[in-house]
Amino acid sequence: MSDNDLNDMMLFIAVIDAGSFTLAAERLMIPKANLSRKISRLEARLGITLIERTTRTQNITDAGSKYLEHCRRIQQEAELAQATIEEMLNKVGGTLKIGASVGIGHEILKAELGQFMMMYPDINMRLELLNRRVDLIEEGFDLVIRIGELDDSRLVAKRLGQINRKLYASSDYLDKNGKVSAIEQVALHDFLFMNSVQNNEHLTLISSNEEFSCKLKPKAQVDDFSILKQLVIDGVGIAVLPDYMCQASLDKGELITVLPKWGMPAVDVYALYPKNRIRIPKVKIFMNYIQDVFERKLCI
Prior knowledge:
CATH topology of the largest domain: D-Maltodextrin-Binding Protein, domain 2
CATH architecture of the largest domain: 3-Layer(aba) Sandwich
Number of domains: 3
Helix content: 25-40%
Number of helices: 10
Distance between the termini: 56 Å
Strand content: 25-35%
Order of helices and strands: HHHEEHEHHEEEHEEEEHEHEH
Radius of gyration: 32 Å
Mean pLDDT: 88
Largest sheet: 8 strands, mixed
Structural class: alpha/beta
């Protein structure tokens, strides 16, 4: 079937509704000869006459009447599809599929999503917390919050802020194993690693223009920051943790910042979404909401 089949079908409807090629051409604002040629092309493609025409009259054939019924159904479905999209582009509702890491989910989103859901009751939230890279388009995500640079040209990346990462320990651990007063002493302590960040057991820390690197044998290796943080609170060892995860524990005295001037390089956090998806109200509204959330949580 030709790519122009549907267009020609709509032109056929227009000719029948107008009652003549002349009036139909005027309404469509195209030359009458072009319109007549397109209908003739449609008839040739179908192998049957749809409209019997003379210099003065035109009459739809029996085959044309049957064909017109189907053309009108297609026209109605096309109009319904257009109306559905227009409604979707103007109504804040539907299923919103969001992805984020476990740490961001628990430490940033958990306390905020309830308010969002109350504000927009027609949205059905589907949140997936996972510590892996996802294919947004293949897996049907509307938006994913991710740390690190964009590596997919099909997506748009909106920066939400910057995450700082420092060394943390519990007071119990430091009381038992000794305070850390110099960066070189880090290698003498039990260290806990986040697999996705330090998977080669090599630690690099920076302070202003200084850099310190060392090879460590980790006491524990995990793939979730929430578990890593709890191990630090429990006194198992020292770890590099994102600042946003630790403020409440610092206030409670559960954690202590070790060598506050040192840490891993800061990383940016982004909201990623497929191109043009931001035009859908549910996505745009959520994007605006989490921008405010991250601005508060990360103190941008």
